[in-house]
User: What shape does this take?
Amino acid sequence: MDEILEILEKDARVSAEEIAKFTKIDTKTVKRKIKKYEKDGVIVGYKTVLNKELVREQHQEVRALIEVTVMPQKNLGFDHIAERIYQFPEVSSCSLVSGTYDLLLVVEGKDMHTISNFIAEKLSPMENVKGTVTHFLLKKYKEDGVILRHREDNKRIAISY
Assistant: This one.
């Protein structure tokens, strides 16, 4: 992978000037390459990784991993059903995977009821969806390569004998 892409993947806030220093490529070339990567769809967006546990009071959100077993359509494969599923606003991520199920979704909602309604009313009734298994995320320790620090609110009392 291009060194510019590796740097941006680790930290999207790095400026073209800083990338030029790291790579010993002139700044104009770095900017031109980044624009081309954006135009070609290699770079599809820039993202901030949030530790949502630390902003929990303002943003109460529930996330779930949903394993989906589907029946691929003839001449369309998995892509067609995946495209229909990832269009739902509740779905933040959709991947085709190997193993005992076909698609892995990350779904977000304001509470467990919202997610269960999404599954019962939108996902499960879809033609070609054969089954789902839902796992609610309780706590994240690491996301996109970034270790998330957690509050130390609930310190356990030391037990001595």
